[in-house]
Amino acid sequence: MYYKAVEITKIPAQVLLEKTQPLSSDEITSHQSFFQEMKEAMKKNEGIGLAANQLGKNLSVFVIDEKLAQEYDVPQIYINPEITEYSKDQDDLEEGCLSIPKYYVPIPRSKKVKIKALDEQGNKIKLKARGFLARVFQHETDHLNGIIIKDRVEKKKE
C-alpha cells in the first residue's frame, strides 16, 4: 500500500493551538488509512509520537513509536485519549517536538499517569504508564489540547 509523504505541521499553524475534536465510533473505521499515514509520517520524521494535528487534522488521535509500544506492551494508536491521573512526583527531562524543529528544552512531567482512550478498533482501553512512556503520553495529549512545549516553558517561567 502506498502512502504519500506527509509534511509535519509546524508552529505557528493554528491547528496546533486548538483543542482537537473527538472521533465517533463510526469515524474510527473510516480513518484507518489516516492512522497508517500517521505511523509512516512519525517514522519518516524519526519521531517517538505524533498527534493528528501535527499532520493538519483536527482529530483527537495520537500514535506512538512501534518499538516503544512493544517495549511497554501497549497499543500504538490512542483515540480520544484522556489522562485521568497524574502523579505528584515529577522529573525534568529535555524534550523536542517535530512541530518545532531544532528546539529542545527541559519540561517537568509527572513520572506516572493513568490514561483512557479507544484503540484503533474502537475498544476502550485504560492504562497506567510510568517513566518515558508517561512522558510521551503527556506530550502527545498536550498536542491534542492545543498545548506545545513552548507553552510549558512559558508557564515554567511564571
Describe this structure in words.
The chain is of the alpha+beta class. The protein has a single domain, classed as Peptide Deformylase (Alpha-Beta Complex), CATH 3.90.45. Helix content is 31%, strand content 32%. It contains five helices and seven strands, in the order ααββαβββββαα. It has helices spanning 25-30, 32-44, 66-72, 131-144, 149-157, and strands spanning 49-51, 61-64, 77-86, 90-97, 100-110, 112-118, 124-130. The protein has a five-stranded antiparallel beta sheet with strand order 1-2-3-6-7, with helices on both faces. β4 and β5 form a beta hairpin.
Q: How much strand content do the residues show? A: 25-35%
CATH superfamily: Peptide deformylase
- CATH C-level name: Alpha Beta
Major sheet characteristics: 5 strands, antiparallel
Strand order of the largest sheet: 1-2-3-6-7
